Amino acid sequence: MTDKHSVVLEFGHRYTKCGFVHELAPRAIIRTSVQVNQFSKEIDLLDLTGDELDQGFKSIIQTIYFQYLGVNYKERKVILIETFFTQTNVRRSLLNVLYHHFEVPSLLIVPHHLMALIPSMISTGIVLDIGWKEAIAVPVIEGITYTNSVKFSSLGGKTINERINRELIERRAKIKINGVEKIYEQSDLLDESVLENIKVKTCFISPFERGQLMLEYKAGLRESLSNTPKDVEFHIDRNKTLIIPGGLRESACEILFELYGEEQTVATLIIEAIMSCPIDYRKILSSNLIITGGTTMLPGFKHRLKEELIFLVKKIEKYSSKIQIDRFLFHPPLCKENYISWLGASIFGSTDVVTTRAISRDIYLRTRGCFTDWSEWWPQIVN
What whole-number distance in Å separates Cα of residue 86 and Cα of residue 43? Predict the structure, then answer.
């Protein structure tokens, strides 16, 4: 068994990644969704509770092992990546399913944000993760997570999808059904998967100057916007075609950067995380930014984020009077941004840490479900 590579699993709100240690990319990235019964549509797994959550994990893990990995789950150790805000009931359900139902030999839980640092070989930095439901900025100094400095906002892929649906109605977009054109209405609400495709295939993030013009226009300070992108046709299925307004294509993702009063943006998350850290490390943190998450793969995201950060520290009194930083540097990703942490876990799992820190099934059963948290053993590795 020592010669068999461990399995690396990451269950996100929207997508699940699976593969083996020593590999440079996951074997598969699949939707984290299940069917409760044969008559219902698929729903997000992590929204379930109780027995339904257990059954959902059993279903998706069995699919992973037999359809994508092709190995015996009783012969492979498991490395499980969890996010900073993983709910206790989700962790408990997953542990019980893996240990009791699938009888995995051992399990090691590793933190998402620390794994994101490993491919870049750094121990100090800020990890900005923008996923499906939230955006979170986590400062790490010399391998230690500064939990009191973690900043969180409900900005993510789901927020952009809701904005797209809302603007389709507000902009009176046109939809063709069997060749008959009509105005998009509330009754024509699209499925999340369709909205996801619209976002990925047609939307983009505008440069900072264009974003400021759109903000002025939305506030009523400008009468019109010139050089609006072209409308595009998006084929939903064989019978439906949606005409996506050009203004929507560039404005949908602006919700990540719109600064109103005390509301957070993805840029203010980073600034406030830096400000809450010791002053001696602020410049080091600003020079070691790791961007991860599927939403960050939108065209123009990193360029816009850098311009937003510079604008905040130079022009906004709230930040310019408290922080003296004039540059922000991003580490170039060694893979796609949506699986940086998975790659880090693959590298981390190739060391002897799986042997020394993983909890075996025998110990788990003997201690009646007692599991050592990563925050207890990680400082020992760093030191």
Answer: 18
